[in-house]
Amino acid sequence: MKTSDQRKSREWVRDPFLFGMALILLAFVTVTLAVTGRVFGDPALIGLAVVSVAPAFWLFYQRGQAMAGRQPNQRPRRR
Fold first, then answer.
1. Beta carbons within 8 Å of 29's beta carbon, 6+ residues apart
2. What's the rounded Cα separation, in Å, for the pair 56 and 62?
3. Cα 7 from chain centroid?
4. 62: burial class by Cβ within 10 Å (0-12, 13-18, 19+)?
5. Which of 20, 30, 29, 22 is nearest to 50 (CA)?
6. Does residue 47 contact residue 35 with C-beta atoms inside 8 Å?
7. What is the residue extent of each domain of the chain?
8. How far apart are CA 20 and CA 63, in angstroms?
9. How far apart are CA 25 and CA 12, in angstroms?
10. Staple partner for 37: which of 12, 45, 72, 76, CB 3.0–4.6 Å?
11. Cβ proximity of 59 and 22 under 8 Å
12. SS3 of 65, please?
């Protein structure tokens, strides 16, 4: 059974505007790191740009769980 606190904690993931803004922020950070790494020739910045893509996958995972109405680590029951 879900409490109202658990539902409210992930409401931002269901909101298309806030979800889109979070993705735009992640995209901006990724592009900024990639361009800066390319301009200065620093492979560490390019590596950070590649790693900064991972939170976007996490956001889509959280959104899928929120839309399905399950907890993030809860598996569906087998009958």
1. 52
2. 10
3. 18
4. middle
5. 30
6. no
7. 29-68
8. 11
9. 15
10. 45
11. yes
12. helix
Question: What pLDDT, in 10s, does the model give residues 28-75?
Answer: 999 999 999 999 999 999 999 999 999 999 988 888 888 877 555 556
Structure tokens at 29: 């950070």
Structure tokens at 22: 């979070």
CB 45 within 8 A of CB 52: no
Torsion of CA 31, 36, 37, 38, to 10 degrees: 90
User: How much is the pLDDT for 1?
Assistant: 47
Six token digits for residue 23: 């993705």
Place of tokens 């790191």: 33
